[in-house]
Automatic annotation (TrEMBL):
Belongs to the PA28 family. This is Proteasome activator complex subunit 3. It comes from Rotaria magnacalcarata. Pfam families: PA28_C, PA28_N. Implicated in immunoproteasome assembly and required for efficient antigen processing. The PA28 activator complex enhances the generation of class I binding peptides by altering the cleavage pattern of the proteasome. InterPro entries: PA28_C (IPR003186), PA28_C_sf (IPR036997), PA28_N_sf (IPR036996), Proteasome_activ_PA28 (IPR009077), Proteasome_activ_PA28_N (IPR003185), Proteasome_activ_sf (IPR036252).
């Protein structure tokens, strides 16, 4: 157990002295790069690759690219739109006019891709989030292992350890919430896409998808900024109080910086 404790202590101090400032500088470079610039917002609002109501009407009126799975009955004609989507037309009633658009039900078959820019940013930030959480777990144990046994006397250094540990835990809780953000975004976007498919004539559903993508971009930029600040603040806090964290009980008294 002594060897394991020594390993944790060495790892914790290495993270604080070396890896945290390196990660902070990397994130600062990322935040300052064109990838997270607000000029990218216009690129985030990409057009959704789904047929509009006008596309469906135009294809039906002109009979463009319509083919049937049965040349005799033509009960399930298929429409290939220009963006590669496939729409199947089902007659609501055999007595209906086959040229009547209102008497038809349409089934969308195709692939709706994720927003590529958002996906790229998420893939870029995820390793930093996971590294921070993994590192904080080691740092918490590192501080905990250096807390001396409870006894009477000078415990001021111990209070510095406990305050530092509490601050690290608070930051850890905040960073953990960043993981949920991506999941909630994907679920919300998927639900909106379903609405666009079901109601292609409602323009607000299309615009809401674009607005959600824009919101996610701003949130990812915020996450990058906060991660940079967290790496910096944890490094700064623990380095300024490193001696009291490592040797909490001395004859001298110091205040928490």
């Amino acid at each position: 157990m002594d060897g394991y404790s020594a390993k944790i202590k060495n790892s914790g101090e290495h993270l604080i002295r070396n890896e945290f400032p390196e990660k902070a500088l990397e994130l600062d470079t990322l935040v300052s790069s064109p990838m997270l610039s607000f000029s990218q917002v216009s690129k985030v609002r990409t057009e959704i690759q789904l047929p509009t109501a006008d596309d469906i009407i135009a294809h039906l009126k002109h009979g463009k690219n319509i083919r049937s799975t049965d040349d005799h009955h033509s009960s399930t004609p298929e429409i290939n739109t220009d963006n590669g989507c496939l729409i199947k037309k089902h007659k609501a009633d055999s007595n209906d006019n086959p040229d009547s658009i209102q008497a038809s039900v349409y089934e969308f078959n195709g692939n709706v891709p994720s927003n590529r820019l958002i996906s790229t940013l998420e893939d870029k930030l995820r390793p930093y989030i996971l590294h921070f959480l993994d590192s904080v777990a080691i740092i918490k144990l590192w501080i905990q292992l250096m807390i001396p046994k409870v006894e009477d006397g000078n415990n001021f250094g111990v209070s510095i350890q406990e305050d530092s540990l509490a601050e690290v835990r608070t930051i850890e809780t905040e960073v953990t919430q960043y993981i949920d953000l991506t999941c909630k975004y994907l679920i919300s976007r998927g639900e909106l896409i379903k609405k666009v498919v079901k109601y292609p004539h409602v323009e607000d559903y299309r615009r809401s998808v674009q607005s959600l993508d824009e919101k996610q971009f701003v949130s990812l930029r915020f996450i990058a900024l906060e991660l940079r600040n967290h790496y910096t603040s944890v490094h700064d806090l623990l380095m300024k109080n490193l001696e009291k964290i490592k040797t909490p009980r001395t004859n001298q008294t110091h205040s928490l910086y």
